[in-house]
Design a protein that fits this description.
alpha/beta; about 15% strand; 13 strands; 13 helices; seven-stranded parallel beta sheet; six-stranded parallel beta sheet; homotetramer
Chain lengths: ~375, ~375, ~375, ~375
């Protein structure tokens, strides 16, 4: 009997993070992949990641709509609850042997809780890292529910153990989000606009450009619009070609979106094109060839460090997360942001960092998934 | 403006644990109590605790049915999800300043998640303790979501801090479940049968009796029936008058109930009376005057230590929880259980232990609820 | 491509009603059966019909827990809502061509609404009949949502058409619940007690017995306990051997159950055995060999008319439903009930009535399911 | 004791329809208004009607987010289910004496089902009308659940009675959506753009303009984009100033929105301004002063007939609904639409029609709400 590994993919970002793991599970003779696609990965407004997933040859066993509209703290909580209700039914019907979840989003929490109460061993990628936002609390709470921990960095591994997890089940694997950066041609796709549409003036990607990706910070809800305005102003004044990526579906993303829309209406910026979604590899190509990546995405800390892309990290969302030397931190201030982006453009590419892994995390994770003995009853180590 | 303190009471047990806190909040000039009653506290099958609550003079701002029937791991997960969906709506409409939750049940988790995503500071009672069952994981996960921690014991306090919580927000208050044991007349109610009904032969409580309370262990789901059979057999053979309390609504409680029902049908035991629910004080009187309390309820570790009641703790559910000297641990084995109960009856009462508090936890907790400054953004301490 | 026919079975009763249809769909070369099992059909407390279903060789494509505990009007509404949420996800993933639903329960309504909004043609069995309880409103509302109507009686067919349905899609098929009564040996199973357990004193089914089945009337919520007490009293005084079947999970069933339990505790009746569930054929055997069937189940009107079993119908639940001559109607009054049962016992068996069909409904229904052209846009006929 | 009348307002449109009723209930000495605001009435993306409602001086007793994102048939069904779950909890806590619901949307259905199972009498406005889309089925299903029927037209009243409702509870009141058209100054607001924002080029409302409002037809899901393209093309070619209103949140609205967005990106139309929401009176002023209203909104049939506004009704959504002479019907064809709009502009205003009422419906409805005796048990009339 193959071990059934269920992975719940809920957004473009979570897909990028686990794609190499999905591939390895699917190819492993002792494992069966049960892919569930849910949340914003099903929504056109957030880029319809399901199409990318299916184009990559994965066949979901279930699709589950769980986002309750509102993009505020209340609906974020409710979406978590609805996801638990529905994922429990899915798990009941597909009976996974292990559920694998990634990072720290509300869908991660929902997956973790459904699996935990159903006595299904839970494996967790990216535990032990630090950040701001509610993600910080959720990530560590998921650690307390998980049976297998796949840490991206040595420090993360140590933190997971300090929190009381059994060291025998905390593995330093590196982050699988880097795996797709290895062995892939990361030169820019010439037809990126044709393939991924978006709105706004056409850009010439053969010429220099920067990339922006700024999410709401849920614990600073209602500040999102003011925060993004600073970034918009900075980018507008810098007047570089800019590929701007739409935010996640979180409390406050509606505010961020409104800020962006209002700016577009007022300023009609001639150099900024807005994208909703990319396949993981295309996103990697996009940032790999950018002069600079700015915003507050964890990809600026993680993938960009491996690629050596200069990054300007804005605000508190990545607070405390380990950084390579490619990152400059700034506050929510147009001038600061502008200066830092200029500085990073002048600096140019950084050397590759292996802080978050060496591109082989997927293989290591899947080996542990295939072989680990798991006791469903967890015990605090102290 | 008064600080609004929302407490979600979900069962007879959770009510007993926080009753003193509810009273203190209601009486505090700077606080307003928002009592939500939900889950098995609304269900007749589990003793209709809502009536006790209202008889005590508390007026719920909302009642929320969230138990999805099945009493198995799947419905336990689903009930958690449904509780989050609904509690979020309640919180949206009553806008608490702090949400207070207790212990480690699925409703605790639901409350914690709804509050967390809604940026409402979360206060948690009974964090840092150890046990078996899924409760063990859930308790520590709730700690990672909570902003204020009210630990019952010094060891618990230390564990919470070791898990990375800010020591400035981890308070040693003792457990409020002991508060109702102080200053209450704990002699037996003579009319206990008349008041609380139940099924089975009438007992004469002026004569010696024992008390049994055995819950399912969710991580040992499907063993519940076999486990309770051993206890039933032991009790049957001991042939003492026995007050048996119905189990919680958890995965496996249906199995436990079936075990009990089958036993009643087959053996028609002449000395065992089955109860569904007691007000906290009556439960305290019941165990205070018992020869012995056996089963796996945390009240055997907690309230019974304070009362000096001899306890036989069966199986893994209280694994690792700090014990006073009043507890003998045994496995799921009728003979072991029988011998241990006999030994405890011979021993008789133990001296009072203050391991879990001194009866003044409620006052301390409420003082911290009234005065604490809380930063909604949590940060791991290391 | 086969037409995919999805049937949602939600209780022992709904299974009995559609079993012949399930069989015919499964055997039809142009159809594929998608069986979903949900609601009380999954619950041990209501007889675990899922086991009967699987023993009959049917393999559900999904199991969905949707009963929210409380058995009151609020939880009945909420269970309907939860069922819609979850059935929509199931339909999304199995993509039926037609959804078939039966009768008038809240799960029927949930199935109808999920299918309707998802543009899946809806077929309905037992439309156009009259009764009391909320079922009366729900049945006609489902008619207004359905595309194909399979009426059990000529009068029902006419009512459906009078309500504005397209006569071309209203078929007089007879009721499939009668199909299992044909070509089945309906002599009593000698091992009925061994096979179906239940609680209460053992009965000797080779000797005369009566059968009772009394459900709550949702629109008379809170009267259920008083109502059942009358029946219990009548049965107790009659002092025949009695097979009593547990009520449905509806608003008020908890009240009915409590009435039964209290009666058992007080009177310890020596002639009444309580059953939870039977396979359809065993239920047919049970009533076929009974002296009399009393209560308010529609089977007293429907199956019993075909079998010629004398029936005492109590109260308003079957108000207005067409009757054959085998039925005496009485109010909620112990004396009336007692007298009527005695009268029916004296009368003995009635001749077979074909009012509700001839035992071939399943075949007719499946032929229409296979061949009907359906326009998803409904239009009122006037 | 006042009769508590609960009204669930779920969108800008449903608010406009019942505003006069809300006002009359609030002012009636024997009635208490319990206003619940839910669904798209809470969503910024659909115009944040809650602000208009609160500005009008109404204070909701509860806000309930229930829209599950996706805007497809599956999420429409799921939103219905979620709404039932949550409205049941609201009703449980506010205990209305009558629930009043309007028209035929999925939220109407959800409200009707929650009330029905909870034995709360249901009053329904706009029953008995005919249309296309799933609304057609839902409207009649709600009629079968409702206890009081407030019909807008004589024909509607007759249809409700033909469907088997008790004539004593079917009242011809006229439609309350017309009430706000009486005694209100319907000259154009000069500052409409300043007050209601929107996106697109500024219009000069002192000069001639047309209004467009085109919703998805749920039973023609996936055609919405193609359908709206025809209208967009027609409007673009006509080259009048155009106020375009965003569609409802229904299955297919995302498609309609995408069609609109793509058109804006490609054509950058210089004469079309897009609005999200208006207070009812402002919407009335907007259409009252327009050359022509085109699309498929029921307001083209209803309010516009009273105002004598020339209307071009496109496609099947209003199929069968009674029309005054102000309506020209066309198919989904740019040329047809263009020609019809031109014809209507040439024609100019029509005389006022009282087909849908005389502006006093609210008063009549509230009198019946205050005085009607209601039997919770419904009975089909034949």
């Amino acid at each position: 009997m193959k071990r059934k590994i269920c992975v719940v993919v809920t957004s473009r970002a979570s897909y990028a993070r686990v794609k190499s793991v999905l591939r390895e599970v699917a190819n492993h003779p002792g494992l069966e992949l049960q892919l569930v696609v849910s949340a914003s990965a099903l929504l056109d407004r957030f880029g319809n990641a399901i199409q990318v997933i299916e184009n990559d040859g994965f066949h979901p066993v279930a699709r589950v709509y769980i986002i309750i509209e509102g993009e505020n703290p209340t609906t974020m909580a409710k979406s978590t609850g609805l996801a638990i209700v529905e994922l429990a039914t899915v798990f009941e019907n597909i009976k996974p042997d292990i559920v694998l979840t990634v990072a720290d989003r509300f869908e991660t929490m929902a997956t973790a809780i459904a699996a935990s109460y159903m006595n299904i061993p839970l494996a967790h990628i990216q535990g032990g890292e630090k950040s701001g936002s509610i993600d910080e609390s959720v990530r560590h709470a998921v650690t307390k529910l998980a049976h297998l921990h796949f840490a991206a960095t040595e420090e993360s591994r140590e933190r997971i153990i300090r929190m009381g997890e059994n060291p025998a089940h905390v593995f330093l694997t590196g982050c699988p989000s880097l795996d797709i950066l290895c062995g892939t041609d990361l030169s820019l796709e010439s037809d990126i606009l044709k393939k991924y549409g978006g709105v706004g003036p056409l850009l010439d990607f053969s010429k220099p450009y920067i990339v922006i990706m700024q999410h709401p910070v849920t614990t600073e809800y209602l500040s999102g619009r003011a925060q993004v305005k600073e970034t918009l102003q900075a980018v507008y004044e810098l007047d570089y070609q800019t590929a701007w990526l739409w935010p996640n579906v979180d409390a406050g993303s509606d505010e961020v979106s409104k800020g962006i829309r209002a700016f577009r209406e007022n300023k009609n910026p001639s150099q900024i094109h807005f994208f909703k979604n990319f396949p993981p590899e295309s996103y990697a190509r996009l940032i790999n060839n950018a002069l600079c990546l700015a915003g507050n995405s964890s990809s600026g800390i993680r993938e960009a460090s491996f690629l050596g892309v200069p990054v300007v990290n804005i605000g508190t969302r990545q607070y405390g997360r380990e950084r390579a030397e490619n990152v400059i931190d700034v506050g929510y201030d147009a001038n600061e942001i502008k200066k830092a982006i200029r500085k990073q453009i002048e600096h140019g590419k950084y050397p590759q960092s292996n802080l978050y892994g060496d591109g082989k995390a997927g293989k290591r994770i899947v080996a542990f998934l295939a072989d680990s003995k798991i006791n469903i009853q967890k015990k605090l180590a102290y």
